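User: For my dataset I need records formatted as: sequence, then structure tokens, nothing else. Please produce one.
Assistant:
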Amino acid sequence: MFKRAFDLFFSILLLIILFPFFVIVAIAIKLDSPGPVFFKQKRIGKDNKPFMIYKFRSMSIDAPDGAKEALGEENVYVTKVGKFIRRFTIDELPNLFNVVKGEMSLVGPRPPHYTQHDLIKIRTEAGVHKVKPGIAGYAQIMKTGGDDLESKVKCDKYYVEHMSLLFDIKIIIRTVIMRFSSTETF
């Protein structure tokens, strides 16, 4: 209950503070490529229930719907603005609407794409599906991902078993530091 209050308070606060930034990003997306500003995609949430996640659109409108790993050479579909907003994870900021709706938390395992059956199965077996997915996750700061599902789920399970407000704050701080100290080029 306290986690929900924390999530709701800070997601609403961030949406208010970031509103002018959202407008700037929306204009940049519209000027860069045709199509909607926001992108909705089916993901799997708490108790393996599907929901629609909101993101800023970073790919062209002809990009296939699929998990990032299944797209192959996804850079073919990423727009110019998309490269920038992905570098700093700006495309994920509309996930705050999912937090307000109660579908996500600020911190938790990232929600899998509905076609990631292996990941969903392993997470279910590990009990990870019993918590809301998050915008920031322990597996991401531990830099697990891609095809290494076992490592990802191990980190997700660790998070579920050690959930606390202090742990969430540490994950948020490390996520922000990682995003802005990235040496990737765009």
